[in-house]
Design brief:
By secondary structure, this protein is of the alpha/beta class. 40% of the residues lie in helices and 16% in strands. The strands form two sheets. A five-stranded parallel sheet has the order 3-2-4-1-5, sandwiched between helices.
Length: 309
């Protein structure tokens, strides 16, 4: 089982010392840079250098990091598509007394990657698990967003479509904490429009390419960010989205406010999508909201010319 911190481990010996002390046998969770390779900590470098095996999402990505620091270590790919097959192999190495470092492509392992099941299996097998903390895309985005950081939820990626996506938005909409989401850049404009329609003008921030050359943070109400990216189109690079808590979103929508929110959503979304988003946010029946969306769409069309007498 994982050992609790103690006075004897204050200098980080279980996870290796900066001076190159050998790592203790077990699974070591290594946080890696989210963009700027200079963010790798001395402890993380020592751990990667001393490990018998480096387990990572993509051996090419981690290989680039290791080459940057002149580290030559055996690497094994472990990701969503091969995790079930590779987990027994990794556990066998650990049970034989190996020092295994687990690193994600960028940031802290287990946050939006398959490492959780490996850690759980190691703990259940009585294998020591250690952490070498460091960069985290979620925490980096949260801290630069300007939104409250005393209570937050890292929700990862939304489901791509359908009932699962609507359910996720509905559930997140009620969470009384700052939300941190990840999104593919190509989907950002559509996602912002859907979230704005569902959640209203909550304060938000889009953090892009954090720690890299073209780092950018855009802050504002969700609806304004949605409009801005609708005009500009999808950005490039890695994106994290931070959204203010439900408690900051104001009172439930009244009829006039619902119509206003629907009208705004209909400017960028089809009636069905707008209705799904608003139904998820308000808890109203989807068919009811859809009928209202169709009525608003119809009323917004120009009237046909009257026949001449």
């Amino acid at each position: 089982m994982t050992r609790p911190p103690s006075a004897a481990s204050d200098v980080g010996q279980p996870s290796g010392g900066v001076e190159g002390s050998k790592l203790a046998p077990g699974l070591h969770l290594i946080a890696t840079p989210i963009g700027n390779l200079g963010d790798l900590s001395p402890r993380a470098l020592a751990a990667l250098r001393d490990a018998d095996l480096v387990v990572c999402e993509d051996t090419r990505v981690t290989g680039k990091l290791l080459r940057r620091y002149g580290v030559a270590r055996s690497r094994l790919a472990y990701h969503d598509h091969n995790a079930a097959r590779m987990r027994p192999r990794i556990l066998a190495r650990l049970q034989a007394g190996a020092v295994v470092a687990l690193a994600s492509d960028a940031g802290t392992p287990l946050v939006s990657d398959p490492g959780y099941k490996l850690v759980r299996a190691a703990i259940e097998a009585g294998i020591e698990v250690f952490t070498v903390p460091g960069p985290s895309a979620a925490l980096a985005a949260l801290t630069v967003s300007g939104l409250p950081a005393d209570r937050f939820l890292v929700a990862g990626f939304l489901p791509e479509r359908g009932a699962d996506r609507r359910r996720a938005i509905r559930e997140l909409g009620a969470v009384p904490a700052t939300l941190v989401l990840f999104e593919a850049a190509r989907r950002l404009p559509a996602t912002l429009a859907e979230l704005a329609a569902a959640l209203g003008p909550r304060p938000a921030a889009v953090a892009r390419e954090l720690t890299k050359r073209f780092e950018e943070v855009r802050r504002g109400p969700l609806d304004e960010l949605a409009a801005a990216y609708a005009r500009a189109g999808p950005p490039k690079g890695e994106v994290a989205l931070v959204i203010g808590a439900a408690e900051d979103a104001g009172a439930p929508l009244g009829e006039a406010e619902l119509d206003a929110a629907l009208a705004e959503a209909l400017a960028t979304m089809a009636p069905a999508a707008a209705a799904a988003a608003l139904a998820a946010a308000t808890g109203r029946p989807r068919r009811e909201v859809y009928r209202r969306a169709l009525a608003l769409k119809q009323s917004a069309r120009p009237a046909p010319p009257e026949e001449e007498a």
